[in-house]
Design a protein that fits this description.
With 705 residues, the protein is α/β, with parallel strands linked by helices. 53% of the residues lie in helices and 9% in strands. A hairpin with a 4-residue loop joins strand 5 (103-104) and strand 6 (109-113). Keywords: Aminopeptidase, Hydrolase, Metal-binding, Metalloprotease, Protease, Zinc.
């Protein structure tokens, strides 16, 4: 062991870990043996100080400094809000180079992938700081939700993962209030949960588990993201203070025991005096989420709830559920007397709310309610005009959430791609990172799905390039040393969108900087090409170049000691590679000893975004399926990932048939849910292209693109 700090060095083999045997509440246990360095600190605000250490391989320990700095603050914060101390006197965290899971909350010794724990202020992209902060907070939350109190059975997995996701976000927002953490939650966790739950192949949050093969398949966006989203909705409904008081009651009663979802509801009910189970049962025990169809007539707004499916074809049998929906109407209608504005029936009418200036009204203020809102065209126009005018009554979460809803409704056919693009044009003055991150995502999704038509693809690219032009020139390429975090993130997403859309000045500068970067020594490279802009520049260079640029990125991958940089290279090569020879080379490389098996998905994710190579990637996957089965069986859903990701942007009926035919005679127990979700996604996108392809072409042509 080598301790970092002090004048001496101490070497020995060591064992870390703790085993506590509570028969009714077993703990996750880990031991680590090897040559590691560590840095350490101690909590300062707890009755019993906790020693905190971060362990790494030799030479990497300073990259654990950020994680170490936030660890005691998170422990102190959780001790305060949970009303229960962390029961051990030490908390060790270790970066493991070869680790299938992102992280694991072993009691007293949390294990992480290297990229989930280590962050280098000089060489890591800006988003990596958020990833480390959130992952550390999530895993420390499990020391209470998971270890101190453990779920009774896998049916209640979401009690661990959904809660840790929510409270981990709460902790990051507490530590970094200027990061717009909850707005970011709205475009990430919230959207992932709603997206998966809009499929027939989804499952309830509380899902019966009768077969071991089913366990790893529910470590998904329902247990984590929808789980966290409904907890956020409930905490907002009860108020966060009352909710956390109920959490303290729950933890005190069930310490070192197993618990169920109903145990949590009972504690919250006792604390709040409100029947929480009545409110929450449909959200956790029933598949799906609602869409609120909004109509206006004679001065009244009517909202009517139905099950939302991305296929827009829910049968009467599938549309029986009446959710309790916190409407969050702003301005507040005087006719709704319930302080929580809870819709408990199929539909409700109220007077058209008016802002002081006579403009728009909004449903789902702050986007804490877990539902989609389908406004009439007139309401969308009013909201769009308010966005264009920079109305202070529409915050970042509202602007992002509105766009996400309309994108989802366009995909399903509840709305149309023309209405979505009309709305996007109102965002031309937008300056918030979170909103631009979502805009980039949705524009790229349209580009990917409708790329079956070359002319449409080129026109979408032109539309994106024009939309992004002002922001490209305003932000430029340089990342000032003391720049605030969100501005750095914004510049990164603007450059990414510009490069991908073929923005002429951006492509030219990316190629110039790439050449300088590859010719420079390591000490100068970060000055030439900031880590946050590096992936985009690598993609542009490879896609606009050829073998030479591909070889340069490959060499950079092999020479860099940073795993986050290696992951970036794999994604960039996958996203930009052209030609059968290079496609074959990247697959050969990805299965070689140079690439950790856990990192193969990075390359696959890149290829899924590559319209020039994704079909070849799917063909390669079929030809090498036996190798992947041998490599990944039992590895936390990796086989399902290998199926879903390569086809996740395709809209081809031929690929859907190929999926059916290829897996018809194969054992699919390990990835049955993922396979069905892949098929359903292909059907949804295929219908979208058939329904809106001509309309999209007409809209773009009519706008002069």
């Amino acid at each position: 062991m080598r301790k970092n700090g002090g004048s001496g060095q101490e070497w020995r083999m060591f064992t870390l870990g703790i085993f506590v045997d509570f028969p009714s509440c077993p703990k996750l246990v880990a031991f680590a043996v090897g040559d590691f360095e560590y840095i350490e600190t101690t909590t300062t605000e707890l009755e019993t100080p906790i020693n905190c250490r971060v362990y790494t391989l030799p030479g990497l320990v300073e990259q654990g400094r950020f994680a170490l700095e936030i660890t005691p603050k998170i422990l102190e914060y959780f001790t305060k809000i949970f009303g229960a101390p962390y029961p051990l006197t030490k908390l060790d965290q270790i970066a493991v180079p070869d680790f299938d899971a992102g992280a694991m909350e072993n009691w007293g010794l949390i294990t992480y992938r290297t990229v989930a724990l280590l962050y280098d202020e000089k060489t890591s992209a800006a988003q990596m700081k958020e990833q480390v902060a959130y992952t550390v907070a999530h895993e420390i939350a499990h020391q209470w939700f998971g270890n101190l109190v453990t779920m009774e059975w896998w049916d209640h997995l979401w009690l661990n993962e959904g809660f840790a996701t929510w409270v981990g976000t709460l902790a990051v927002d507490y530590l970094f209030p200027d990061w717009d953490t909850w707005a970011n939650f709205t475009i990430n966790e919230y959207q992932q949960g709603l997206g998966l739950d809009s499929l027939r192949s989804s499952h309830p949050i509380e899902v019966p588990v009768a077969d071991p093969h089913e366990i790893h398949q529910i470590f998904d966006a329902i247990s984590y993201s929808k789980g966290a989203s409904v907890i956020r909705m409930l905490s907002n409904w009860l108020t966060v203070d009352v909710f956390l008081a109920g959490i303290r009651r729950y933890l005190k009663k069930h310490t070192y025991q197993n618990a169920t979802t109903n145990d949590l509801w009972d504690a919250l009910t006792e604390e709040s005096g409100v029947n929480v189970r009545e409110f929450m049962d449909t959200w956790t025990r029933v598949i799906g989420v609602p869409v609120l169809n909004v109509t206006e007539e004679d001065g009244l707004v009517t909202v009517e709830q139905h099950r939302f499916l991305s296929t827009n074809d829910a049968t009467p049998e599938e549309d029986q559920t009446i959710w309790w929906v916190p409407l969050g109407v702003s301005p507040r209608p005087t006719s709704i007397v319930d302080p929580n504005q809870t819709l408990k029936t199929r539909k409700l009418s109220f007077e058209v709310p008016q802002q002081k200036d006579g403009g728009f009204y909004l449903i789902n203020k702050n986007f804490t309610g877990v539902f989609r809102t389908n406004y009439p065209a007139s309401a969308i126009r009013q909201l769009g005009q308010a966005i264009l005018a920079g109305s202070p009554d529409l915050g970042v979460a509202e602007r992002a959430g509105l766009l996400a809803d309309q994108a989802s409704l366009a995909t399903s056919g509840h709305s149309s791609v023309e209405r979505l693009l009309d709305l996007i044009q109102y965002y031309k003055n937008e300056k918030a990172f979170v909103v631009w991150d979502l805009l980039d995502n949705k524009l790229n999704n349209i580009t990917q799905v409708f790329s079956v038509n070359d002319r449409t693809y080129e026109r979408i690219q032109h539309f994106q390039s024009k939309l992004i032009d002002r922001m490209v020139h305003e932000l430029g390429w340089d990342f000032p040393k003391d720049e605030d975090h969100l501005t750095s993130r914004l510049r990164g997403v603007i450059l990414s969108c510009a490069g991908r859309s073929g923005h002429e000045a951006t492509v030219k500068e990316a190629k110039r900087r790439f050449a300088l970067f590859m010719a420079a020594d390591a000490a100068e490279q970060d000055k030439i090409l900031h880590p946050t802009a590096r992936k985009m520049a690598f993609e542009v260079a490879i896609s606009q170049g050829g073998v030479a640029e591909f070889d340069q990125v490959m060499a950079y991958y092999q020479n860099t000691p940073k795993q986050d940089q290696q992951s970036m290279c794999l994604m960039a090569m996958g996203a930009a590679v052209r030609g059968q020879e290079l496609i074959q080379r990247i697959f050969d490389f990805a299965l070689s000893e140079h690439v950790r098996s856990q990192d193969f998905p990075y390359m696959l994710a890149g290829l899924s975004m590559n319209i020039k190579a994704r079909h070849e990637a799917w063909g390669w996957l079929k030809n090498n399926w036996d190798t992947l089965v041998s490599r990944y069986t039992g590895n936390m859903g990796m086989l399902g990932f290998c199926i879903k990701i390569p086809v996740s942007k395709m809209a081809d009926a031929a690929v859907l048939k190929d999926l059916d035919d290829f897996f018809a005679e194969k054992d699919t127990k390990e990835f049955e849910r993922d396979l069905e979700q892949a098929k359903e996604g292909l059907r949804i996108r295929g219908k979208w292209v058939a329904r809106d392809g001509a309309a999209l072409e007409s809209w773009l042509a009519g706008q002069g693109y």
